[in-house]
Automatic annotation (TrEMBL), chain A:
Cellular compartments per GO CC: ATP-binding cassette (ABC) transporter complex
Subcellular localization: Cell inner membrane; Cell membrane
One annotated GO molecular function: transmembrane transporter activity
Membrane topology value: Multi-pass membrane protein
SUPFAM superfamilies reported in the protein's UniProt record: MetI-like
Residue stretches spanning the membrane: 20-41, 62-83, 89-109, 190-212
The protein's name in its UniProt record: Glutamate/aspartate import permease protein GltK
UniProtKB/TrEMBL annotation, chain B:
Gene Ontology BP, a term: amino acid transport
CDD domains: TM_PBP2 (cd06261)
Family: Belongs to the binding-protein-dependent transport system permease family. HisMQ subfamily.
The name this protein goes by in its record: Polar amino acid transport system permease protein
This protein's record includes keyword Cell membrane: yes
Boundaries of every ABC transmembrane type-1 domain copy: 21-210
Highest taxon of source: Bacteria
Species this protein is from: Mesorhizobium muleiense
UniProt cross-references to InterPro entries, sorted A to Z: AA_ABC_transptr_permease_3TM (IPR010065), ArtM/GltK/GlnP/TcyL/YhdX-like (IPR043429), MetI-like (IPR000515), MetI-like_sf (IPR035906)
Length: 222, 222
């Protein structure tokens, strides 16, 4: 085989950077929207209303039980037909990844809501706290703090899953990387570089998850 | 919305979808076989006393956990033949890529449960005069395996879903057959919905089983 020549990357650094920015932009938008959906769906899944519980449960199970790729394809190819309008690939990518993120974060919120001990609710009753104070001062702070490490892991998963949008022609890092690799016929150099870019961003975040779990949460004793 | 559904165009072509499902299941089973065995070995390596063993294993795990599965699969398909001059069938290549990905995730699951094996049990093993290999085989392995079953199952079903990614490199799995069928019949909604339902029908029961096992462990621990 031809000797490896990583200098080929220098010619394409601007293109790769643009791709990375698209990836990051998409990831951030979906994190914000997905977490918001996830929080409410998490509440809905623990609610007393059976219809609310059923609908939210179905949504979560369905999005966690099917590949993200098919969710993306479904929204990219089928939603425009059903709605009778055009959707840009950015919009459909945002919809698909947001719904996916909503499903996985709702499980995180649900688990952290459940992790609050029965005795704390009892203590609230014993102290005569009104329901609202109980939610805002006892349940919510602990639930959110405990959810942070897992939420961060969810964000890392989403960042990695965002590479799929290249399959519907969105010019993210993966799409630009495979394009360059096809055009220059240097897949080893280009694809390795793309993998390293993803790694350089995701790895520190995974370390941050461990750090938060070990230090901050034990210090706060939640 | 004025779209007339025609599910028959899909049900008439169920043969290719079933062929695809068989390939998907083969990929999943083989990748799980690799992940379950190699994952344990890698977990032991990550926890090794010697840096020479620990560092490569840790790098392997972190690298596979912190890059998108799609990048890994594309990398394998383009770069392995160029770098190592080996030409494997596309299904074999998919199995290797998915298997190594799963190995990294399972190694983490094993590591967590190995570290949870109580110190006293290992001391008891030493007191009984078991050699290190016996201690691993008879004390660590059964304990760790049982404790990590829910996570291993979750990872295993995760790889079933991730296996849809090999469709992008033209392995004829369920996703690929679905995509082809959607293009041939001009029926993306019906096709992708059915494909999604097939994936769901396999994942959902496993997810329920994981939930059941976790609840049972929780009640047994009390």
């Amino acid at each position: 085989m031809a000797p490896l020549d990583f200098s080929v990357l220098l010619r394409f650094q601007d293109a790769l950077l643009t791709g990375l920015l698209t990836t990051l932009e998409l990831t951030l938008i979906c994190i914000v929207l997905g977490c918001a959906i996830g929080f409410f769906v998490g509440l809905a899944r623990t609610s007393d209303n059976r219809i609310l519980r059923g609908v939210s449960g179905f949504y979560v199970e369905f999005f966690r039980g099917t590949p993200v790729l098919i969710q993306l394809f479904w929204i990219f190819f089928c939603l425009p037909l059903l709605l009778g309008t055009e959707l840009s690939n950015f919009t459909s990518a945002v919809i698909a990844l947001t719904l996916y993120m909503g499903a996985i974060t709702s499980e995180t919120f649900r688990a952290s809501l459940r992790s609050i001990g029965r005795e704390q609710y009892d203590a609230c009753v014993a102290l005569g706290l009104p329901r609202w104070t109980q939610t805002t001062s006892v349940v919510l702070p602990q639930a959110v703090l405990r959810a942070i490490p897992t939420l961060l892991s969810n964000c890392i998963s989403l960042f990695k899953e965002s590479a799929l949008v290249s399959a519907v022609g969105m010019t993210d890092l993966m799409f630009i990387g495979s394009n360059i690799s096809n055009n220059t016929a240097r897949p080893v150099e280009v694809l390795t570089a793309v993998a390293l870019i993803y790694f350089v961003i995701a790895f520190p975040l995974t370390r941050a998850v461990t750090f938060i779990e070990q230090r901050i949460l034990t210090k706060l004793a939640v | 919305m004025n779209y007339s559904f025609d599910f028959q165009s899909v049900t008439r072509n169920f043969g290719p979808l079933l062929d695809g499902l068989v390939v998907t299941l083969q990929l999943t089973a083989a990748a799980n076989l690799i992940g379950l065995t190699l994952g344990f070995v890698v977990a032991l390596m990550v926890m090794s006393r010697w840096g020479v063993v620990r560092w490569p294993a840790t790098m392997f795990v972190e690298f596979f956990r912190c890059t998108p599965a799609l990048v890994q699969i594309v990398w394998f398909f383009y770069c392995v033949p160029m770098l190592f001059n080996v030409f494997l069938g596309s299904v074999t290549m998919g199995i290797v890529a998915l298997g190594l990905n799963l190995t990294a995730f399972n190694a983490e699951a094993y590591r967590a449960s190995i570290q949870a094996v109580p110190r006293e049990q290992l001391d008891a093993g030493i007191a009984l005069g078991l050699n290190p290999l016996q201690r691993i085989l008879y004390i660590v392995l059964p304990n760790a395996f049982r404790a990590s079953v829910p996570v291993l199952l979750t990872n295993g079903i995760g790889i079933f879903q991730q296996s849809a990614l090999v469709a992008i490199v033209a392995v004829q799995d369920l996703m690929y057959q679905g995509k082809t069928l959607a293009t041939q019949t001009y029926r993306p909604i019906e096709t992708f919905t059915i494909v999604a339902l097939i994936y769901f029908a396999v994942s959902f029961p496993v997810g329920q089983l994981v939930g059941y096992l976790e609840r049972r462990r929780a009640t047994l621990a009390e």
